[in-house]
Amino acid sequence: MEFNEVVSVRRSIRNFSSEPVEEEKLRAVLETLNRAPSAGNLQAYEVFLIRDAAVRQALSRASLSQEFVAQAPVVLVFCANPKRAARRYGNRGERLYAAQDATIACTFAMLAATAQGLSTTWVGAFNDHAVHEAIGSPEGIQPVAILPIGYAAENPGPTPRRRLADLIHQWPVGSGSQGRP
Per the structure, how many domains does the chain have? Predict the structure, then answer.
């Protein structure tokens, strides 16, 4: 798919079929997330690949009982590695850059999955400690996003978006556009 088509057809899917994800498609997703940009090219994040049904169920419970997390055949858990970023960038790297790195990688994975004909939804509502327990992540690794991946068992339409005029703000205001594009 062309990039604009990927962005146009991507939907948040909360109902997955039981069809397994092919290894070559999953590999393409993983290779794409590994190419995501990161602060100082440090890749201050860790990704946990979960296929085990019991762990997916634990992640579903950790995600405030969002059942579709367990329903997806593959779940990626993106975690910030603050100490990795702090070595070069200090407090700002620890507090911000590691989380940004993880979320950029998750976005790349989400779009790569769509390009492979797979479906996802971004999960940000979860209990950090319960996710840590479910995936067995080391101390200091902070979960920031859960990405269930599989084949859609639903076909939702596009969702409404804000108008660009309400979203984009030009600076300086008064440059002939009244701050609007």
Answer: 1
